[in-house]
Amino acid sequence: MAYEAFARKYRPKNFEQIIGQEAVVKTLKNAIDMDRISHAYIFAGSRGLGKTTISRILTKSLNCEKGITSRPCGQCENCLEIDKGSFPDMYEIDAASNRGIDDIRALRDNVNYAPIKGRYKVYIIDEAHMLTREAFNALLKTLEEPPPHNIFILATTELHKIPDTIRSRCQTFIFKPPTINQIKEYLKRILENENIEYEEEALELLVQASEGGVRDSASLLDQAVTFGKGKVTVKAVEELLGLIPVTVINNFMKKLKEKDIKEMIKITEKLDSEGYDLSVFWKQINDEIHRSLVKISLGESSEIFSKEDIQDLIYIQTVFSKALLEGRTFSNPKNVYQLAILKLRYIKNLVSLKELYEKGIPVSTGSIKEPKEEKQSKKEEFDLQTAILRIGREAGGIVSAILKKAAIKETEDQIVITVEKNLTDTLQEKIDILNKYFPKPVKIEGKEVKQERKTKKRDEAVDKVLELFKGKIISYKEE
Fold this sequence. Notes:
By secondary structure, the protein is α/β, with parallel strands linked by helices. The chain folds into four domains: 6-174, P-loop containing nucleotide triphosphate hydrolases (Rossmann fold, 3-Layer(aba) Sandwich), CATH 3.40.50; 180-241, Helicase, Ruva Protein, domain 3 (Orthogonal Bundle); 264-270 and 282-354, no CATH class; 373-447, GMP Synthetase, Chain A, domain 3 (2-Layer Sandwich). 52% of the residues lie in helices and 10% in strands. It contains 23 helices and ten strands. The strands form three sheets. A five-stranded parallel beta sheet has the order 2-3-4-1-5, covered by helices on one side. 27% of the residues are buried.
């Protein structure tokens, strides 16, 4: 008999075996028991959380030979065919490769036919967000008014890409990652059923590497068993995942506690020369620092750090986290990580604002004092147009307009502004504002302006009348 991978062999066969989706399971079981089955569902969540598995269990619940039940027997012909994926009334469609309007039209035409063997025809559309806009539009009418005994389940890892028009016609369930302990217990159950020896710490490493995916954790466990020749040990898992040995991590953390920059640099050099992935190492260090911070904050004991280290750890976590992001995109991440280590040399120079205040050292809050800057800029460089613009903002547009037409002259000790005599009072009222923006005291002078008689332009219509009737102007009245 061919070998069956753990992920397939231990795939849940009923609702009771589902891990970490209590809300989803409870709602669906109640819907089945109360005969409140919806015609369309959206199952959304990251990979390996059980979206397709629950879809199959729901199909079994509706088509089990013993009747519609939230506890399908799993032994009848229909249940067994559904588990194998060969049930004629269950259609699993990969939207990544069947995403066009023609595929959905074929599905829509098939909906009109009665079930072949079971009570319901169930259409499971995996990666539904990959459907084209036209395909979604073709699906709309079917989802809104489906023929009886047809159920649609849209599974997706990117819910935001499902159009609102589709979502409004479906019941949406959000699948959340199980807890670390739930996945760990799942792996333990597999190992105990298979009579495989394991180390507790090795399982923790596998759970962390799976990043919340139940299926991923089972696949990793399968690899670890093969790699370790029938045993799951910490050493085997570390080698399999490319992780740095725990002893090296602990040694680095001790040197971090001692601020031993030289030794920490040596550790990174050695790991790099041995071919380890320094980004993996740096992530492990970041995770370890975070765990220590959480433990200390909750009043728990940490193996290496104490409550007095919490301020330093927060700074270190900030520096190291930034280095991790930069190192992943840098051509030589070792340089980035070693620079982060060198920054720790200056932790002792960090002083709190309270200490600075108590010592009487002025502390800048980052606020900008505009008048002071303006005064400094006047000394450094004076720009007339800028000054007029600022005066206009504060004193008004009339003052700005007068200054633009005025004669402005700079002497050794003052700025002389010459304007028409009837405008001097207007400027004199704003003398304080003028002095604020000019580099020297301002003096306002007025001058008499001769009024020149303006020759009024003739209206074009008048000229045309004179030309037409051979006339002349007898008198001209001034306005």
